[in-house]
Design goal:
The chain is α+β, with helices and mostly antiparallel strands and 134 residues long. It has one domain. Helices cover 19% and strands 48% of the residues. It has 2 helices and 9 strands; from the N terminus they run βββββαβαβββ. Strands 2, 5, 7, 8 and 9 form a 5-stranded antiparallel sheet that branches. A hairpin with a 2-residue loop joins β8 and β9. The radius of gyration is 18 Å and the shape is elongated. The termini are close together.
């Protein structure tokens, strides 16, 4: 298992959720609530990327990334010229998961490819950031 760089494609749309901290809430009969935090790291972050009207060659690059990472169990890394492109530096740091979060981006489902016109497609990519035990 190794890190694989995301293709140098800037998304036309992005949705990001930083994930949750593992915790449980317990409610007593009198209504008092106690919250127990089970760790100090986030997990299950979500990143949805949309690439509208890109060349079929770029769409194939995203499909190839899916195949490569799923077969080998690899994870995806971002730089400033790909999935994090267009985001301000503070937000891009979250998307890139720098700063020791321990999250590794992996596909949560296969990419969706919609043909626009011959030679052009729109692609949607859904990723999940999970803590890696290694």
């Amino acid at each position: 298992m190794a890190a694989v760089a995301f293709p140098a494609l800037a998304p036309t749309g992005r949705r990001y959720s930083p994930g949750r901290y593992a915790q449980g809430e317990f409610k007593a009969l009198n209504g008092a609530t106690t919250t127990l935090r089970y760790g100090n790291r986030r997990s299950d972050a979500e990143l949805d990327l949309t690439f509208a009207n890109i060349s079929d060659a770029n769409a194939a690059a995203l499909l190839s990334l899916y195949e490569r990472t799923m077969v080998a169990g690899d994870w995806i890394t971002f730089t400033g010229v790909d999935g994090a492109a267009g985001a301000g530096s503070a937000l891009a740091a979250y998307i890139r998961e720098v700063g020791g979060s321990g999250l590794r981006w992996r596909f949560s489902e296969p990419p969706g490819v919609d043909s626009v016109v011959p030679g052009r497609s729109s692609v949607s990519v859904r990723l999940v950031g999970q803590l890696d035990p290694n």
